[in-house]
Design a protein that fits this description.
The complex is a heterodimer of chains A (113) and B (111). With 113 residues, chain A is mainly β. Chain A is built from no helices and 11 strands. Chain B has 111 residues and is mainly β. In chain B, the strands form 2 sheets. In chain B, strands 2, 4, 5, 9, 10 and 11 form a 6-stranded mixed β-sheet that branches. Classes of the chains: A mainly beta (113), B mainly beta (111).
Chain lengths: 113, 111
């Protein structure tokens, strides 16, 4: 069965450093998403990406965040200058069409110290 | 403001019984409502999707209902098993490629 993959599984970084989280969505999917989940809290939408551009973003997704689909297979989330409160699980998801299911990756646990 | 509410208290049931979980929402008119399962430390796993013009959807032991007048979805697991123990999330599509998740309800199925 096709799956979304994410790397790394765990990233530890110091406050103020830049991090890049990587995702490989399912190959024929058209819509791509990043979510975060702070420990014990709900899954929060960050950004959606379609047709090589951002289609929606949340208020969390400020100028410190950016997304790219550099080569037609990878989908990355960059946090330019990490803060302690960015510590969370970050999930990538993809879907073929809104009428169908989203497939989530296993997540990257980001720890900012 | 938009809100999705799921019972934050854990639901404890005996194996073999039917579990019923509730998702209520306000200030949305979603085209689709989805239910996911999440195990600790893992990503959500899609279970069922129901469209706004559908009242009910079934898949094996799972059943979802969607009442757009009450702004409520019910998720049922029949003949529950200990392996069904997990957190169950509902999610709404706001029609603009943006998904909102509830905080989830933890289900414990006791043998």
């Amino acid at each position: 069965e096709p799956e979304v993959t994410q790397t790394p599984s765990h990233q530890v970084t110091q406050m103020g450093q830049e991090v890049i989280l990587r995702c490989v969505p399912i190959s024929n999917h058209l819509y791509f998403y990043w979510y975060r989940q702070i420990l014990g809290q709900k899954v929060e939408f960050l950004v959606s990406f379609y047709n090589n551009e951002i289609s929606e973003k949340s208020e969390i997704f400020d100028d410190q965040f950016s997304v790219e689909r550099p080569d037609g297979s990878n989908f990355t989330l960059k946090i330019r200058s990490t803060k302690l409160e960015d510590s969370a699980m970050y999930f990538c998801a993809s879907l073929l069409d809104r009428r169908y299911e989203q497939y989530f990756g296993p997540g990257t646990r980001l720890t900012v110290t | 403001s938009q809100k999705i509410e799921q019972n934050s208290e854990a639901l404890n049931i005996q194996e073999g019984k039917t579990a019923t979980l509730t998702c209520n929402y306000t200030n949305y008119s979603p085209a689709y409502l989805q239910w996911y399962r999440q195990d600790p430390g893992r990503g959500p796993v899609f279970l069922l999707l129901i469209r706004e013009n559908e009242k009910e959807k079934r898949k094996e032991r799972l059943k979802v209902t969607f009442d757009t007048t009450l702004k409520q979805s019910l998720f049922h697991i029949t003949a529950s098993q200990p392996a069904d123990s997990a957190t169950y999330l509902c999610a709404l599509d706001n029609n603009f490629n943006k998904f909102y998740f509830g905080s989830g309800t933890k289900l414990n199925v006791k043998p």
